[in-house]
Design brief:
This protein is α+β, with helices and mostly antiparallel strands. It is built from one helix and nine strands; from the N terminus they run αβββββββββ.
């Protein structure tokens, strides 16, 4: 009889393991966006030009993008939450969508502008590539235009 109980225990363990693997396979992937990080160049007119790093995350239809760029530097210390930004992205090659927010960290004088998370809405399969950036800080509006494609490519959600 002892051998019989051992066999039942192994069978139960295998069954429980199979259920756990099945549940993991069915769980939605957090951060399903690819790539999660991309770079591109911006020209911000008289305010400067430089590279930008974008970091995207996704939770269902909600997505956020954090952005830092050497194209714009702070002339003075800028308090956290003082930068309002709109990142416009091409959507599926035919339209555009905006990601907006004002959740920047504190930026020291001379520091590169960081902003985000910028929030937006996505659908499964959306392909988004940064096109322009509008930054408002201390009553000044800076408009930047992408001068290079996003690398390694568009965000696909």
């Amino acid at each position: 009889m002892r051998h019989g109980r051992f066999g039942i225990g192994i069978g139960s363990a295998i069954g429980a393991g199979a259920l756990a693997v099945g549940a993991l396979a069915m769980a939605p992937a957090a951060g399903a966006v690819e790539p999660q990080t991309a770079t591109l160049s911006f020209d911000c007119g008289s305010y400067g030009a430089g590279t930008a790093t974008l970091k995207a995350t996704q939770d269902g239809t909600n997505a956020t993008i954090d952005l830092s760029t050497s194209a714009i530097t702070a002339p003075i210390d800028v308090a956290a939450g003082a930068v309002t930004s709109t990142l416009t992205l091409t959507k599926n090659g035919t339209g555009t969508t905006d990601f907006t927010g004002n959740s920047n960290p504190a930026i020291p004088a001379g520091g590169a502008v960081s902003t985000g998370p910028l929030a937006g809405t996505v659908a499964s399969g959306d392909s988004l590539e940064a096109k322009s950036l509008k930054v408002q800080v201390l009553g000044i509006t800076v408009n930047c235009t992408a001068t290079s494609p996003q690398s390694p490519g568009p965000f696909v959600f």
